């Protein structure tokens, strides 16, 4: 597949074999059986890799399906407002808010406007932009929309958990604790230890549409999930 062909459509259930070995792409399977091909990103050691999803490059039908599924998973939490993590999570957060019947959502930001306040910001790192020094901000004008509300914190992918922890720290400084953290993809289990350190409640309060493992290169030169 050409790079721009990924994330554009779902394949019917059973299109790809579930033998657990992959070459150039990973096949994620949704709860309804439909399959989504994801490019494999090799990590620096050359022996491990991750399946990648960039939701703001996805086809509209894929985005719509992921947003609908995530909205249904968090609907029982009686969400009042959705807060989105930049940059990629904003696309999904807006769509999820619409699926929940909301007329708006609250985007967090990394671009400092002149009316932002330094005390309403935290340092931010991301697996997709590891060398950039950024800060995560809440627009002070948006605070009344979050205060005292049942908040869902949405990102496109939860990987190392660094971005989510930054957002939790920022919201905590504003006396806000989300009732749920949601994402389209839970990318490996690396996030779990970090979120558990932030509070044992987050293991049960973190949901994804689907999950993908940390992949290992096997003797045949193919990628597979580590043996249990």
TrEMBL record:
Pfam families for this protein: Pribosyltran (PF00156)
Keywords assigned: Glycosyltransferase, Transferase
SUPFAM superfamilies noted in UniProt: PRTase-like
Segments forming domain Phosphoribosyltransferase: 56-190
CDD domains assigned to the protein according to its UniProt record, in alphabetical order: PRTases_typeI (cd06223)
GO molecular function, one term: glycosyltransferase activity
InterPro entries: PRTase-like, PRTase_dom
Cross-referenced PANTHER family: PHOSPHORIBOSYLTRANSFERASE (PTHR43218:SF1), PHOSPHORIBOSYLTRANSFERASE-RELATED (PTHR43218)
Protein name as catalogued: Phosphoribosyltransferase
Species of the source: Rhizobium chutanense
């Amino acid at each position: 597949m050409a790079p721009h062909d990924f994330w554009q459509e779902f394949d019917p259930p059973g299109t790809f074999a579930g033998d657990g070995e992959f070459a150039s792409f990973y096949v994620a399977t949704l709860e309804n059986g439909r399959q989504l091909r994801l490019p494999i990103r090799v990590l620096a050691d050359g022996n491990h890799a991750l399946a990648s999803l960039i939701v703001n490059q996805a086809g509209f039908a894929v985005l719509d399906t992921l947003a609908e599924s995530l909205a249904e998973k968090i609907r029982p939490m009686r969400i009042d407002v959705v807060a989105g993590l930049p940059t990629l999570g904003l696309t999904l957060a807006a769509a999820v808010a619409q699926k929940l019947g909301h007329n708006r959502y609250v985007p967090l930001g990394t671009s400092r406007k002149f009316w932002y306040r330094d005390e309403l910001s935290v340092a931010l790192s991301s697996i997709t932009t590891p060398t950039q020094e950024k800060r995560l901000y809440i627009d002070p004008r948006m605070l009344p929309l979050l205060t005292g509300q049942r908040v869902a914190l949405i990102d496109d992918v939860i990987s190392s958990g660094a971005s989510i922890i930054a957002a939790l720290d920022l919201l905590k400084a504003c006396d806000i604790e989300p009732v749920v953290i949601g994402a389209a993809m839970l990318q490996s289990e690396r996030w779990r230890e970090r979120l558990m350190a932030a509070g044992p409640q987050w293991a049960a309060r973190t949901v994804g549409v689907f999950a993908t493992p940390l992949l290992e290169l096997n003797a045949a030169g193919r990628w597979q999930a580590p043996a249990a």
